[in-house]
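Input record (one chain):
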Amino acid sequence: MIEAFVLIIVKPGNEDLVYDKLNGVSQVKEIYKVYGEYDIILRVEVDNIKALDEFHDTVLRKIREIEMTETLIASSYGS
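The corresponding structure, as predicted from the sequence alone:
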């Protein structure tokens, strides 16, 4: 299982629309609207890197209101 955090920048004024499109997606375990450089942060769980690639291709890249994403893969640091 891979856990990742996806930081999302949304086209201005479309934050609620993107939130609604991502809320309920099976891979998305948590979703937050945030203030600062990014607009939305997701916590995503997938089985492997290929599944993470598929999530990016079939979910994120199809939402036109998303301008940019940055994906951080979580590590347990020695556990």
